[in-house]
Amino acid sequence: MSTSTIPLEPIVYHPIGLVRSRFTETAGMPIQTAGAAHEPGHVELFDAFLPGLRDIEGFEYLILMTHQHQAAQRLEVVPFLDNQSHGVFATRAPARPNRIGFSIVRLVSVEGRVLRFTGNDMLDGTPLLDIKPYVPRFDVRKTSRIGWFAKNIADLPATRADERMA
């Protein structure tokens, strides 16, 4: 049986906390954490998940998995670093079928259930789905093949979001 004929059951996730940010709308915000290295933000973890933070202060970087609650759902997009349409799976655009966000942030401090970080590219109130420690040995791959990104990657620091993914 082909996977296109298998009915899938819905997958339900529940937030473990919320991202707090100065950004209240997508227009004008950074498009990737690498383009916002000094932009502060913090996570407010829900009390039930506080035990999950044990030993997290030993990591310099964290991977925050979020639900991009204000993004549209599309299969083709014109990404922020290009002016041509691409399939969404060939982009880092927030307008995705499941709107899952992936942000690598620098942990600044742990204050109870609050994680302060820099590298913020998220909207205020973004639901946090999971936190993973960033481990270079696991997470870094050397490559020179980065598809269409290669022609405009140098524009990242100055590129900001607009309304195209809403």
Characterization of the model:
With 166 residues, this protein is an all-beta fold. It has one helix at 136-139; strands at residues 17-20, 40-45, 61-67, 76-77, 86-87, 100-111, 114-118, 127-133. The protein has a 6-stranded antiparallel beta barrel. A two-stranded antiparallel ribbon has the order 4-5. The radius of gyration is 17 Å and the shape is globular.
Characteristics:
single chain; 166 residues; mainly beta; Elongation Factor Tu (Ef-tu), domain 3; 6-stranded antiparallel beta barrel; two-stranded antiparallel sheet; 1 helix; globular
Order of helices and strands: EEEEEEEEH
Mean pLDDT: 89
Count up the helices.
Answer: 1
Please give the alpha-carbon distance between the first and last residues: 36 Å
Shape: globular
In CATH's first tier, which class applies? Mainly Beta
Percent helix: under 10%
Query: How is the largest sheet built, in terms of strand order?
Result: 1-2-7-6-3-8
CATH homology superfamily name: YaeB-like
Structure classification:
mainly beta
Number of domains: 1
Q: How many extended strands?
A: 8
CATH topology: Elongation Factor Tu (Ef-tu), domain 3
Strand content: 25-35%
> Which spans of ≥5 residues are poorly predicted at pLDDT below 50?
none
CATH architectural type = Beta Barrel
Computed Rg: 17 Å
Biggest pleated-sheet summary = 6 strands, antiparallel, barrel
